[in-house]
Amino acid sequence: MGTSAGLYVVQVQTGREGVMCELIKRVASEGVDNNEPQLLEECFTPQFTTRRKYRGEWRDMQKLLLPGYVIAVTSRPEELALRMRKVPQFTLLLSMGETFVPLRKDECLWMEEFTEDGDRTVALSIAVKYGDSITVTDGPLKGREGIIKKINRHKCLAYLEVSIGGKRVTTTVGLAVLPKEECSEA
After folding, report:
1. DSSP β-ladder status, 57-64 and 47-54
2. What CATH code would you report for 6-185?
3. pTM of the prediction?
4. Region 82-103: what's the mean pLDDT?
5. What angle do CA 113, 22, 52 make, to 5 degrees?
């Protein structure tokens, strides 16, 4: 892989992803010489935007895309794993045997397409319902209806099956499905 950075999955305690991300950043930067390249380019907890009805009003909110995991971008995973031993809570850089393996290109593709550096939040997609079918009209799922496995209209969620670390996992992203009548008024 050379000196290019890869995206590595770090398993953490569910519900503490944000705190753990900050702890990993802190231990990765401890004692680093300013002339030395950074050990950690980015550490983030991927999220998605969805909508919930609260007191009769729809509000956008962020939820975790991969509960129990954070993503670390580094070109030196072995050194990062050693530094993470200083974190007082559970952190595990996922590996295959003795080797730390970054996410494959195809596994990173959906994250790269749906988010941007600095803002790793998948935006809310908007769809229109035509009879029994839906068409996504706006957002990251536009033109990608085929990857949606299931929809929960009441919770504004679309369920996707993606590959992470060689395993198929189901994750959710925000999808607001509007009846055709509401779209023609807009």
Report:
1. antiparallel
2. 3.30.70.940
3. 0.81
4. 89
5. 55
